[in-house]
Write a structure and sequence with these properties.
six-stranded antiparallel beta sheet; about 180 residues; 6 strands; alpha+beta
Amino acid sequence: MRRAGRIIYNLATVVSLLLCLTAIGFLIRSYWALVGVSRSNEVSDFQIGTTHGECFIVLGYHAPSTMRSDSAVHWQWENQPAVDAIDAAAKFDTTVNGPVAGFYLHTVEDSAGKWTLGLIPSPVLVGLFAFLPVAAIPISRRRRRLARKAAGHCVVCDYDLRATPDRCPECGTVFSKPKS
């Protein structure tokens, strides 16, 4: 069970690292273009993307009177000139305050349907995705040191210490004996 937990942790770390690198790529690209993906059908619209360092999500549900006649689901890759998402959020609903520190979540309901807009700064996502890979570094170092010590090797250079258990002849590290 311990091995399975380590495999799952390592897999989650790799996925988190890939998401972090992807988020960094989209963060850099977002200053030149609005990049995202959208899905729409007769009932709803969904869009997720990034622009000017902000990640956004738009969810929309059409009112029955404004529903489209086609039942097909349409996916579309968005690649447009960059727009300021914070300005767009301020225009989304003028009755409430705009984004605070780049964060925004608000729903508007009108005759056309119900629309929800959410914003989160891209650097926050990069930080969230980077947490697990950064936390894995000291954990893997500690695990490696314990494995070397259990095998009778130097914890610094991995030299075999069966002949000289008090001092490593390779790197000079002195090991103190536990007092009994």
